[in-house]
Design a protein that fits this description.
about 475 residues; alpha+beta; Arc Repressor Mutant, subunit A; 16 helices; three-stranded antiparallel sheet; seven-stranded mixed sheet; about 45% helix; disordered N terminus
Amino acid sequence: MSDEGAELMAGKRKTNPAGSTNGFRGDVLRVLGVLKVATADQIQRIGAPHLSFRHTDKETPSEQKTARTASHTGALSDMRKHGLAENGGSTETGERLRNLTLKGLEAASYELRRPVTEMDSTARGAGSSGASHSMAVNETVIAMLRPKPNLAKLAEDPPEVRAAAQAAVDAPGGVGTIASYWTEVPLPATGTWNAPGKGGAQADIVLTASQDHVPLLFIEVDNCHETAEELADKLEKYARFFRRKMKDTDGKERPMWRTRWTAPDTWSGDRTHPPVLLVFNHIGDRNPNRTIPRLIKLTRHLWEGERQRGGHHHYDGRIPIIATGLRHLREQGPTGPVFLRFGRDHMQHLWGAIGNPRLEAADARREEEYRARQEEYKAQVRRAAEEQAAKKAAEREARRPVCTSCGAKFTDERWEEAQATDWGTPKDSHPQLCDGCKHQAVAAAWQERVDTERQEQEQALPEQKAGGWRSRFRI
């Protein structure tokens, strides 16, 4: 790798002859590392969407596009000089296409933090026939991403520019980042990941964005040139790939797709295959409004679930298949009700379409019923404990001693004192009396003892007087 490429991957900022910086070249590497081939306009809209709100003073849309893509065009020029990027032909409308070289893919792997082995091909020659399909794939990624402008980079722009950018920021968001997407991914029914055999499919887009609750989604883009039968055949290849199993690194056999992508064991409680989204870009001769109903019939065995008593379906071994139009996807994004799940009669947002709302509702009901049963059981235990405690308290109260003098019930403390013994002998002097009566009895006994002693002393006093000192001297 050249010194320039090393500086690029090390993240050093360097201004180049064409006016680009590592920031813009990083955009190019990330976008082309994913999309394989793209225009400067697409690279800018993904990598630096804030630029889309500038240059509104230019007279024509063409001049505006030239101005807002100038930085990335300069970055591409620099990268071409250093062997990282190259021109890849033109679109049907005459826009220049760009792609990375092998050296550029290596640099992109650092930007995307992906193994070089997962970077796939350079897409050389994709633009020789106008790249209409590649452009539709790119536009699908942009429509799913809905890149948000960085308002901090527009802090010094006119108020109307910042207001337009703020509206874009406030609009519903997309799914993932550019690093959440892969394109042109082989799905081998035979062979290996790196050397796929015959009979497999190739996913136009693979999306993994668990942070946005889309753990794994395969996307097929159709320019409405293919028949329903051709699309059904492609979905059969998907099913064949999903059913294929192989040993994982721990020696356990798993579906092959699970050895590459991390996804939950279930989708909404069902052991289903990953969902497949069909995006129809109506530029071909075939009308998707006629193709989709035919395709639904041809693939029923792939997507139809088994109805359960709760009104929901189980989709074990089935593929959730969803369809949408690129125009609607551009306008409303993944949060809009523009997705039709095969087997349903209403449009949903993406998360509703790939999920199983009825099962989720049934699971919620079961969970609520379980919690209610648990609460009722706890209440029964509490009531039983309270009743047992009340019974014991009543039995104890029935045994509570009553003062033999005044008839008052003993307090707990007095009861305990009255029952205390020392080697089997009661410690209390008046165990049959309450505290008050005991004190009175003790006081009365003490007074009686004092009176008795005084009487005894008084009775002994005359005898002492009779034998006084005078009697000692009598003759």
